[in-house]
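Lecture 7 notes: from sequence to structure.
We start with the chain below.
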Amino acid sequence: MKINHPLVKGVVKEVRPFIYCVEIDDDYDRAMLFCRYQEFYESPYKKFRGKPFTWMEYMRFYKSSWKKRMFTYPDDWSGYNIPCNIIHQAHHIFCKDTEYDAIMNDIYWYCEKDSSEKNDNKQVDWYLIGASGKDLRTMDHEIAHGLYFTNKEYKKEITKLIKSIKPIHYEKLKKKLIKMGYVNDKKILDDEIHAFMSTGLYNGMNTKELKVYEKEFKKNFRNFTK
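Predicted structure tokens for the same chain:
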């Protein structure tokens, strides 16, 4: 599916079974398309997560909360990941509020139709990610999120690997992720920990004591993405 809109140019394609990537190279356009849906899914702020909210409300709050001079979301975040059930909920709440919502509405229905047709016209869980085709590291990170949701065997292996992380190290990862802006929710944090471990630790998490876990996570990711 091509996106050829005055606000957004890109393409939607299935990068792994039932994992659809909205590939947009412009950081601003990608962020503006995904922002409200991503924050509806996993915002650390209760007033936004799972709630209806306007662009103006979010932009003003984000700016003041992070003590920024302006709205810097497109600079702060590069990749996006949302399960189909969350897209379904957000789609009904934000439906065509703005031109970005109209674009996301088209993407939602495309993925619904394509995933169903590939599953003998039966509904199936699918996953939506957003990344630049020029940023393969972020792409892999978001694909890891998609596998965690769509592939039961993958999630089973990841659950074992997360349990192998020592509690003291898990807490360090948790605190770092919350400081970065992730919500304090174990399901979300486990998903983020696994995605960073599977595709490369950075942003202060790549310490010697934490990097020892990377090898097995990366090996598992390679096994499922051959």
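Points to note: The first strand starts at residue 2 and ends at 4. The chain has a mean pLDDT of 95.
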